[in-house]
Design brief:
two-stranded antiparallel sheet, Znf_CGNR, 5 helices, ABATE_dom_sf, CGNR zinc finger domain-containing protein, 169 residues, Jann2411-like fold, binds zinc ion, single chain, two-stranded antiparallel ribbon, mainly alpha
Length: 169
């Protein structure tokens, strides 16, 4: 998957693989770890590999993340935003103001037409749709979504079968 700073930041809220959502930036240690992992994405000269975060930085980063996710949700509309976001979206104009104040975040505008919210059950990720009919952020999400679709179809088929069987009785 293509890595871009704003996407990486938005993706720090993610599906935990077990029906829940994890936040990689919930703690100062988590922020330090995440920043160090992003060193290759940041402009040369920013020694992210040596940063140690504090609570103030954590709060500022998670605020930027709220703004990024709010704008992502707006960009993917009229498709629905990731469901984990619905209760924490900030108004888009406020999000823009917030982001304009943060020069370190790359502009998402040039690729906005390719941004999508993953439609797999319980997934909360955004991704850049790089080819064709891609609907999911990663293959395992595609497998989960197809399994859920298959299960729904089978259930509907068996329901309509038993309904028509009821009529003939
Ligand atoms: Zn996904």
């Amino acid at each position: 998957m293509e890595r871009r700073p704003a996407l990486e930041l938005a993706s720090t809220i993610r599906h935990d693989g077990d029906g829940g959502v994890v936040d990689d930036l919930a703690t100062v240690q988590g922020v330090t770890r995440w920043l160090r992992q992003q060193e290759d994405l940041l402009p040369a000269g920013i020694p992210a590999g040596e940063y140690t975060a504090d609570e103030d930085l954590r709060l500022r980063i998670t605020e930027v993340r709220r703004a990024v996710r709010a704008l992502f949700a707006r960009v993917v509309s009229p498709s629905p935003p990731s469901r984990a976001d619905v209760h924490r979206l900030m108004p888009a104009d406020r999000a823009l103001t917030r982001l304009n104040a943060v020069a370190a975040v790359d502009p998402v505008t040039p690729r906005r037409e390719q941004l999508r919210a993953c439609t797999a059950p319980r997934c909360v990720r955004y991704f850049v749709k790089s080819h064709g009919r891609r609907e999911w952020c990663k293959p395992s999400c595609g497998n989960r979504a197809r399994a859920a679709r298959h299960y729904r179809r089978r259930r509907q088929a068996s329901e309509s079968a038993s309904a028509s069987a009821g009529k003939t009785c």
